[in-house]
Amino acid sequence: MYFTEEWNVIKGGSKLQLLKQKVLDEGIVLSNQVLKVDSFLNHQMDPVLMKEVGREFTRRFAGEELNRVLTIESSGIAPGIMTALELEVPMIFARKQKSLTLRDDIFVEKVYSFTKQETNEITVAKKFIQPGDRVLIIDDFLANGEAAFGLARIVEQAGATVAGIGIVIEKAFQPGGRLLKEAGYRVESLVRVAALDDGKVTFADQD
Ligand code: G4P
To answer: What residues are in contact with ligand 1 under a 6 Å CB criterion?
Structure first.
């Protein structure tokens, strides 16, 4: 069933509950490390779900002063743009490149992907993040935190502030969430997966 229909039949129930249900119904456990969610987040995207994701991040970060959303291509763009739409601020997505000749009008950070076992350079044009900006980082997945730390380093290179980090699905058995919090960032994950053992998704207790 497409998310739109399910979403509308829940009355007074938690919409996040429905996001978890979507993970249970459509997520494919590829190994005890990797959850495939290409039917609503990583390939086909569910716009109604993304709209609610944007609303939920906006609700959670309502107390923060924010004037930019920063994400990373490609799967961060959908939750990022829907959050930026709700906040009515611009969204920037960092671009990934294998390697590039350094130029002085871009911020560059190296990000290693344990999942893909490759290093990408991520770049953002300097003109889009200014000193004093307060930036909300949004991403689809949090595993080891490499992407989120790379984005945070770009914000800090710019002399701007990371106002928070919003994640759609955190794999809580990997260290990214803990490391980001230890580094002082406020992290809000909509769904926290505790384990992917025996082909089954188990959520963390607080969910
Ligand atoms: P990290 O940034 O938290 O350290 O994660 P890692 O390097 O391990 O992840 C690299 C890529 O794999 C990222 O996407 C990340 O979102 C994705 N990823 C990590 N674990 C999972 C998982 O269990 N399931 C799915 N579906 N994705 C996962 P990316 O390479 O930037 O891909 P895309 O945004 O272009 O789609």
So the answer is: 34-37, 42, 72, 74-76, 113-116, 140-147, 171, 176
